[in-house]
Amino acid sequence: xxxxxxxPVVILGVILYLNAVTxxxxxxxxxxxNKLDQAKMxxxxxxxxxxxxxxxxxxxxxxxxxxxxxxxxPVETAALLKKYKDVNPLISEIFLFYRNIDMLxxxxxxxxxxxxKQYMYxxxxxxxxxxxxxxxxxxGDEAGALAGGNTVGMFIPIPLYSSAPAGVLAFAIxxxxxxxxxxxxxxxxxxxxxxxxxxxKFLAVDNRSIHIxxxxxxxxxxxxxxxxxxxxxxxxxxxxxxxxxSEKTNWSLITILPNNRLFQNVRNMxxxxxxxxxxxxxxxxxxxxxxxxxxxxxxxxxxxTMERTLENNQLLNSKIHEQGxxxxxxxxxxxLEGKSLDQPELNEVEGFLGSxxxxxxxxxxxxxxxxxxxxxxxxxxVMYRSLQFEGGSGYGVELHHEDAIAFxxxxxxxADSRRKLAVQLEMMNERARAQLQVEPVTGIGGVCLRLQxxxxxxxxxxxxxxxxxxxxxxxxxxxxxxxxQAQERFWYPLEEQVRLSQSLLQGDIMLAEESIRLMxxxxxxxxxxxxxxxxxYYDIINMVIKIVNKLRPDSFQEEIRALLKFHSAxxxxxxxxxxxxxxCESALExxxxxxxxxxxxxxxxxxxRYPSPDMSLDYAARHFGMTPSYLSKLFxxxxxxxxSDFLKALRFAAFKKALVATERSIKELVGEVGYWDxxxxxxxxxxxxxxxxxxxxxxxxx
Length: 702
What we know:
Blueprint: H1 7-59, H2 65-69, H3 74-86, E1 91-98, E2 103-106, E3 109-112, H4 113-123, E4 137-138, H5 142-147, E5 151-158, E6 167-174, H6 175-186, E7 192-196, E8 202-206, H7 214-223, E9 228-234, E10 237-245, E11 252-258, H8 259-262, H9 264-293, H10 299-321, H11 324-337, H12 343-353, E12 358-367, H13 374-383, E13 386-389, E14 392-399, E15 404-411, H14 414-436, E16 439-444, H15 454-467, E17 476-478, H16 479-489, H17 494-506, H18 509-525, H19 530-551, H20 557-564, H21 569-609, H22 617-623, H23 628-639, H24 643-661, H25 666-672, H26 678-689, H27 693-700
Parallel strand pairs: 16-17
Antiparallel strand pairs: 1-2, 1-6, 2-3, 4-5, 5-6, 7-8, 7-11, 9-10, 10-11, 12-15, 12-16, 13-14, 14-15
Helix pairs in contact: 1-6, 1-9, 1-10, 11-23, 15-17, 17-18, 17-19, 17-21, 18-21, 19-21, 20-21, 22-23
């Protein structure tokens, strides 16, 4: 029998090699572009916070012209401005100027116009006053910005949105604070970061790791104005130039890093695949020689195996790139619920949240007289999307059923960053209260070193709201601080009891069992009277009975009776552990039923209305009173596919059925399943089926 030799194996190996390397390279570049987009969002959020501070100063009657000019002492004015400066880590100085008052006020004191000019020259290096401008500008010339030590000025006329402003408010911002926001997200220590204003001039630069001349940088900026990734060479080194543009500020964010750093994993993959290809080829030769001698050649079987391997590899890469934002939301929700993630998924989440190794959860509950409307939910989801503060960052996760939002926070320095996190959340809560008439209350859980333990911090954040009476307050309450203070006055295992209560409601059996064992260990270690110990035990039983009444009051009567008849601490602990397992199973079962009850009508509604051209994620979310992001996440969790893929599958199935069963025109059938553009539909159909609609009709027509 004819033996074709190792050529088919080599060809398939080359295809597999090119596909794997190309997909890995695309995945790496997409990951870093997503990082840059996240940095852009954080920068936009920081600018919005500056505008919010400006709004508050503009509305402060104690800083109005008639107050500071007629009797309100300059020292008190400076103290007020300092208060506004301290709540926003970006601001290094605030300047307040009114046209008819020959004084300029700062958080450091007040100055006459002549004195202020000298102050500006010496402290900030600005070569003129810009009190008639609105846009942000960089102090000094571009060389100063490239040196990395410049100050950015943001000038806002006040009162805000007035046709005849009485004065101007100026924020002095260290350029390094802006670049730190970008680099805290990118996580690349050996990259260059550049922020340009709407005119293409340098605002902030961190060029300590990438030494590229100013002339070459300007050439790159003029040559590459579209967002994305671009390659260039400089002095024998290959670089990648990543660009993102903000629609909110019209600023450009640029990151430059060497390709040997960016594509290090690609080179490792290339070497591995080459060795693998060589091994396949050598193995094919040996097998061919052996089978030729035996007059048998199973090349077709080997080729089929290689094709299946290639197909699986393409499917895996497609899954990684599909709806990255939605998948990330699902992963974060799983972490909060205590569900396990694979190590590659954990690595992706850590890459998104940033390095630091200290994580915690915050729980913000929105209390109002009525159920939140869809518009309010959407506004809150945007407002609490992310937060950036000195020493850390956070990402918001929507909790639709609870009228709440959770934050997953990464702290770079636990000691200094906790209070700054609380201040940032309190500012966001004040804004939500003022704009949306809700009463946000915030609990913050303890710090954990592993993402897998984040559900513990989340349960603690919810638990502290259960016990702390702070209705109507915007300040954040730390779980560990509150219960430490409570137990200093009179010891009682309240901290573990709160964890147990919330873990039972969440269905977190591991944390529930841990809390029970820890409670009994602590009670046994304390020198309490027998009467006091029995009181504590009955209080624990009472708490568990309340949980039972919330879940299934009629299903655990036998277990409750067993609890009440305990004769020893060991017996009570055993009964509690048994009941906790059953309660957690019941809580998870109820949650799944609730999700199914919520999701089934959505699917039914879409199946009835999918031919409508108006059908979209936003349209469906509005109909069911959800935010688009939450509905998208719900689809991913329940079906494993995105909303758009689900809708597309319904429409394509109906189109193919009508295509084969009738003789009506393709244009007419396309319109009936909700599409306007026949040409784009035809391209999508061919990509999915491998043939045009006309060819499909001929092939399947009976």
